[in-house]
Specification:
By secondary structure, this protein is of the alpha/beta class. Helix 2 links the parallel strand 2 and strand 3.
Length: 224
């Protein structure tokens, strides 16, 4: 599983990679090629930032040694929940939690965490884009899809932090709060690796940045 590169958090269209986001994806592609990582199958969500990240990975692989990825299959189930609408719904229902005009990034993530926790607990009842159980179900559908694939295949899934966190929470059979905690710490273009077969999954690595894990590239590590 690969989370998308840095999106355009400070623009009107968040669903667009920043220049750094493209670079992160290209560096990951170079890393895959350099270490002989190939894929038999590619799944991608239907958001622009997912497709741009996948294109960056492809470009990085091609640049390094001319390798390429198989044609991707698009699945809307791998798309992110609408976190902006979720936060709006939370602040409408709990007006004392309104973000001020002077709110900083720390304030935003605090409200996001409260919104996710309330959503998971079924406490958000108005103007929610989808219910928690609906989000959980569509991600579970994708995990079931994976278990139908030959376990010898290497599969690349490019998605978002929330969808990946929900998948890992499912794999770990962990409580809902685990999804919230994993989501908020997942970094851009981070890799989480699992082994799978018809019986299920085993988590091997979470939130790794092998392509950025050196002193020269630490300034490229982002969370947005």
């Amino acid at each position: 599983f690969v989370r998308h590169g840095q999106a355009s958090a400070n623009s009107k269209n968040y669903d667009q990679l920043s220049d750094l986001g493209y670079l992160q994806a290209q560096l990951l592609g170079e890393h895959f090629a350099e270490h002989g990582k190939s894929f038999d199958r590619v799944m991608v969500g239907n958001m622009m930032r997912h497709h741009q990240t996948l294109e960056g990975i492809h470009q990085g692989m091609a640049k390094f040694n001319g390798s390429s990825l198989p044609q991707a299959t698009i699945y809307s189930q791998w798309s992110e929940f609408d976190f902006k609408q979720l936060i709006r719904a939370f602040m409408q229902q709990f007006p004392e939690q309104q973000l001020s005009e002077q709110a900083n990034l720390k304030d935003f993530y605090k409200v996001l965490k409260l919104s996710l926790t309330s959503w998971a607990a079924g406490k958000l009842t108005k103007n929610v884009p989808e219910q928690w159980h609906e989000f959980e179900h569509r991600v579970s559908e994708m995990l079931n899809e994976l278990t139908n694939i030959d376990a010898s295949e290497r599969v690349l899934v490019v998605s978002s932090g929330g969808a990946i966190a929900m998948a890992l929470r499912n794999i770990l059979q962990a409580p809902a709060q685990t999804m919230v905690n994993l989501n908020l710490q997942t970094r851009n273009t981070a890799v989480s690796h699992c082994y799978f077969n018809a019986d299920g999954f085993q988590l091997s690595q979470f939130n790794e940045l092998p392509h950025l894990n050196n002193l020269e590239r630490q300034q490229h590590i982002t969370y947005s």
